[in-house]
Amino acid sequence: MARSIPITAASSATSSLLSDFAHRPRFRLSSEPSRRLALLQLGSALTQPNLLGIKTSKLIRAEGTAQASTRASGEGALEWAKKDNRRLLHVVYRVGDLDKTINFYTECLGMKLLRKRDIPDEKYSNAFLGYGPEDSHFAVELTYNYGVNKYDIGTGFGHFGIAVEDVSKTVELIRAKGGKVTREPGPVKGGSTVIAFIEDPDGYKFEILERGATPEPLCQVMLRVGDLDRSINFYEKAFGMELLRKRENPQYKYTIAMMGYGPEDKNAVLELTYNYGVKEYDKGNAYAQIAIGTDDVYRTAEAVKLLGGKITREPGPLPGINTKITACLDPDGWKTVFVDNVDFAKELE
Ligand SMILES: C[C@@H](O)C(=O)SC[C@H](NC(=O)CC[C@H](N)C(=O)O)C(=O)NCC(=O)O
After folding, report:
1. 260: helix, coil or strand?
2. Where does the record place the catalytic residues (predicted)?
3. Where does residue 95 fall: left (phi above 0), alpha (psi -120 to 50 degrees), or beta otherwise?
4. DSSP sequence for 31-77
5. Whose CA is nearest to atom 15 of ligand 1?
6. The dihedral formed by the CA atoms of 306, 312, 314 and 316, expressed in degrees to the nearest 10
7. ipTM field
8. Among this protein's residues, is 314 annotated catalytic?
């Protein structure tokens, strides 16, 4: 059984520049995720036997028919993936000391501790942090596995992106609080955006990027891939994402592609990086996956299979939490978990 842990004083963000974002009046995301979620809960109630008092056997038969028709129509499944209610929910990774990381993210990065849970049966705990409520904002989900205090980050994981209005001031603040700065503020090589890099206690890199005010400061997850067009095709077709931007940087021998479900200035995105000639990376064992919300994990799994994606976890409820999920791998072996939107909303209650 999962146990929620009450959030204590450790969650109070300092008055840093970053925590200002968390305390500002909340921007409405263009796609209105909270309204979308409410509507979708209504729609998905039809698949929740206990909500409408419909006999489970009838629902199982209906679901079976729906799955059969999805199988019969591959194109339908792909169309559906594009129309599904999707949003990047959180990025999951492992840390060696949960409290140390929570302190760093709240004190240095100005995040809020949103929730914690302990799953003793499975011997792990989670902490969720970010810049706004999880029903409308992207978050980090830290995983602590009992007794494991060190992980290998590998070479494939790149960084998480945090957008701020003043990179220099933010970096000074992080430094003053003992944060490790690995790249000083200045224009990105081959471009004009002011960036800096810092490292968290486990060595995960955060790129601090200069942007105007944004509703989603936690704005990027950067992963390196071996064939950019193959990846773009996969995330567009199997995941229904949009290619938001592609940028070549021949001088520094790389190309990036921003993929996601909405504009980059308002939503977290997946930044795929292709370094010329590099086909493979070591994934280590620290970074885990991105979680994406969906109205139907069963149809999601069907669509991914039709596109040649590898399902690593057949759709169904997660032990100890009961949230329905399905997991799959992209062409480079990066994992994504799709999470049932209604179950996820219940987790937040
Ligand atoms: C604004 C947006 O375009 C960026 O910040 S890109 C950041 C840039 N990325 C890369 O260099 C990717 C290729 C690299 N070889 C890798 O695999 O990480 C970056 O990190 N620049 C560093 C700098 O000092 O400017």
Report:
1. strand
2. 207
3. beta
4. T-HHHHHHHHHHHHGGG-HHHHT--HHHHHHHHHHHHHHHHH-HHHH
5. 275
6. -130
7. 0.94
8. no
